[in-house]
Amino acid sequence: MRSFLPVAVMALGLSSLGGAAQAAAVSGFESSYEALQTNCSLPVGLVNECESGIEAYSSALVGGGIALDEANISFSAVRLAVFELNAADSDFQLQIDALFDRLLPNSGALAGGDDDATSASLAGDDGDNDLAIDPSPSGEDL
Hints:
Blueprint: H1 5-16, H2 20-24, H3 30-39, H4 47-63, H5 68-85, H6 90-103, H7 115-122
């Protein structure tokens, strides 16, 4: 079973800085971060819009030359924030978390899973320090 300690420590640290949304957005990319959070959260979020938001934020960060570690911290924080915001609908919450896990496996699973599955999804990483976006077609059922 995956340890939730790093996510919990990060969440506590971010909340003490004035909220996850403000603390986790990479400087200069706040509007993209906020759009991603909105697209992935109830009441207006949709799975396909969330996928588009993840891809847009990822592309913006890569295009802006943001370090992989900084990008992963930001994605982990937004993933945690939307997980909490979607608590009222556990099915939607799990769909969005599965989407993050598929597109950004380094952002830390929150809804469960095992380390072997995560390790297998990371095995294809070529080590070139890019964000691990899965190129599978959009719109597939989660």
